[in-house]
Amino acid sequence: MYPLANFSAEDTPIVIGIDLGGTNVRAAALDPAGNILASFQMLTRAHRGPTEGLARITDLIQRTLAACSQTQTLGIGIGSTSPIDRSRGTINNPYTLPTWSNVPIVAPLAETFACPVVLENDADMAALGEYWRGAGQGVANLYAVTVGTGVGTAAILDGQILRGRDGSHPEGGHQVIDPSGPPCYCGSYGCWEQLIAGPNLAIYAQQRLAEFPDSELWKQCGYDPAKLDARMIFAAARHSDPLAEAVVKRTANYLALGIVNIAHFFCPEVILFTGGVMTDHDLLLPQVAATLAERSLLVPADQIRLLPAALGGEAPLIGAAYAILQELNLVESLPR
Ligand SMILES: [Zn+2]
């Protein structure tokens, strides 16, 4: 049974999942089985300051509750772009949320909505969502890799997020793959993110475009290399464009080297892939699997399944709902 103290007999108890990103913030109301009942999205507009941002999130939650004819929720889970301080319930991310330095978010929302609130990294929430309702269901040792405008990673062990000191989020996207590679905003060089994230594929292709005057990519970008993006590169690779194929091969190789490291450190049962770049997983994962088989002889790499994630953009919302249900000790009674 769920605690129904705040709900009348005919009400369905719901939880709220929030996905707070640099561009958009989304809220969803979910039932305890993980079904999304209503969801809304608005621009984050972080640069206008955290006070307005928090007001927007509050408005979003109220709209979502109203769409379900509710005024109460069991609790709120927030998956946010990092860095965050989970234990203090604050967001400290002036990188993708300009002006948001040490901003309390858990306490004000808990007060406004009179319910428990949990804050986690968004990649962790997405992996938790896949564990509950997606491609990682029933997997005891799950690793997730998001390759989009950046590279995010998350590990779920027996349904729990793997955390570091003080609840910190390990950043597998910043493992060094090529020490002579490009500088990274994390302070290092040649990080995984710098080599395989979408914008970095485009930069590499731009740098080599002059060598390939007949490349389809010229037409794809309207003869303006600054407009090249990863989607164009994968599309051209499907037409056997030599430059695009070279970029995809290089990306698959760097992706594979990071996965070999993950296999050695975690030996997960499943590695899930999501994010814009991994939309074209069929062009990348065969090479990853081959490299993994060649270079991971001391671990049972042949038993690691490499799978595309199943929930798409809804994964962080569903994971955020699961996180607050965990906080409420309701997970044991959830349908599986
Ligand atoms: Zn880095």
Brief digest:
This protein is 36% helix and 18% strand.
Strands across the major sheet, in which order? Answer: 3-2-1-4-8
The small molecules bound here are: zinc ion
β-strand percent reads: 15-25%
The general outline is globular
Radius of gyration: 21 Å
How far from one another are the termini?
A: 15 Å
Low-confidence stretches: 1-9
Mean pLDDT equals 93
Q: Structural class, from helix and strand content? A: alpha/beta
- SSE succession: EEEHEEEEHEHEEEHHHHHEHEH
Fraction of residues in H or I helices: 25-40%
Oligomer: single chain
Enumerate how many helices there are, as a single number.
10
Give descriptors for this structure.
single chain, disordered N terminus, globular, five-stranded mixed sheet, 336 residues, binds zinc ion, alpha/beta, 13 strands, 36% helix, 10 helices
Q: If you had to describe this structure to a student in words, what would you say it looks like?
A:
The protein has 336 residues and is of the alpha/beta class. Helices cover 36% and strands 18% of the residues. The chain has ten helices and 13 strands. A five-stranded mixed β-sheet has the order 3-2-1-4-8, sandwiched between helices. The chain has a five-stranded mixed β-sheet with strand order 11-10-9-12-13, with helices on both faces. A hairpin with a 3-residue loop joins strand 9 and strand 10 (151-157). Helix 3 (122-133) packs across helix 10. It is globular. 45% of the residues are buried. Bound molecules: zinc ion. Zinc ion binds next to loops.
Question: Secondary-structure map with pairings?
Answer:
Layout lengths: L14 E6 L3 E7 L5 E8 L6 H18 L8 E5 L3 E2 L4 E2 L11 E2 L1 H8 L3 E5 H12 L7 E7 L3 E7 L2 E2 L30 H5 L1 H11 L7 H5 L9 H8 L4 H25 L3 E5 L6 H15 L9 E4 L6 H13 L9
Parallel strand pairs: 1-4, 4-8, 9-12, 12-13
Antiparallel strand pairs: 1-2, 2-3, 5-6, 6-7, 9-10, 10-11
Helix pairs in contact: 3-10, 5-8, 7-8, 8-9
Bound molecules: zinc ion.
Zinc ion (ZN) binds next to loops.
